[in-house]
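Retro notes (design track)

What went well: tokenization of the new backbones is finally stable.
What didn't: we kept losing track of which sequence belonged to which structure.
Fix going forward: every design gets posted as structure first, then sequence, in one message. First example under the new rule, 246 residues:
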């Protein structure tokens, strides 16, 4: 009986390991129906609003207060009035998409760390928000020292990814947010839905959780929570404090 129990335990462990491996082997979608989209630089995706003039402020004050973070980090995300035209091949034809520029400005202990200008457009048919590239300025002591992570769809084999799907939030969905080989290959997996939480900006319901990773660094992992109407609310240790609406 003892031997049988050991064998059953070993079999259960093997099945669990097989399930984990099967999950890890599920592919991330990296090809999207761009040809079916009429793109707009202003969008209504409930988790990723593209409204010019919108400004969202984040910090990690809670993490610092709990003694788990040593630096005071702040992030400001602005949906600019500016747009950028991105030209790429869609269905074999050169196509120009007008994207909205969203600026992210990050500081640590009051010192500028990074400014990125991200290019997004929403597919009218699906409300999927596509990511077309970014410009990156990384700072040290007030001086730009790097542009690591810059990419642009239509250049060096880079293609758009999806930053946030429209319609239903399907648990288990996996897709690439950036498709820029050897430069930017961020990807997302839907891991939770119907969440309720409270941050400095207020109480939120109907929120969803996305786990982000990258092919370029297997150890890199981050978690984001988005809420209807509010968009991004939690970015790892950063939490939404307030939003300035246009």
């Amino acid at each position: 009986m003892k031997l049988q129990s050991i064998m059953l335990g070993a079999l259960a462990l093997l099945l669990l390991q097989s399930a984990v491996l099967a999950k890890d082997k599920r592919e991330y979608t990296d090809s999207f129906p761009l040809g079916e989209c009429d793109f707009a630089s202003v969008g209504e995706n409930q988790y990723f609003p593209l409204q010019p003039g919108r400004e969202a402020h984040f910090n990690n004050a809670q993490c610092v207060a709990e003694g788990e973070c040593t630096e005071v980090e702040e992030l400001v995300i602005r949906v600019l009035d500016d747009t950028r035209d991105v030209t790429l091949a869609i269905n074999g034809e050169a196509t120009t998409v007008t994207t909205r520029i969203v600026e992210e400005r990050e500081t640590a202990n009051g010192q500028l760390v990074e400014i990125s200008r991200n290019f997004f457009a929403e597919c009218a048919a699906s409300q999927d928000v596509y990511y077309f590239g970014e410009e990156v300025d990384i700072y040290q002591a007030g001086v730009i020292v790097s542009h690591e992570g810059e990419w642009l769809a239509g250049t060096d084999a880079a293609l758009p990814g999806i930053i946030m799907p429209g319609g239903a939030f399907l648990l288990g969905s996996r897709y690439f947010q950036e498709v820029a080989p050897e430069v930017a290959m961020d990807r997302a997996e839907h891991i939770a839905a119907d969440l309720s939480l409270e941050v400095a900006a207020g109480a939120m319901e109907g929120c969803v959780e996305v786990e982000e990773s990258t092919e370029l660094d297997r150890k890199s992992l981050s978690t984001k929570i988005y809420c209807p109407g509010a968009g991004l609310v939690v970015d790892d240790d950063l939490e939404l404090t307030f939003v300035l609406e246009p």
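Added context from the reviewer: The chain has a mean pLDDT of 91.
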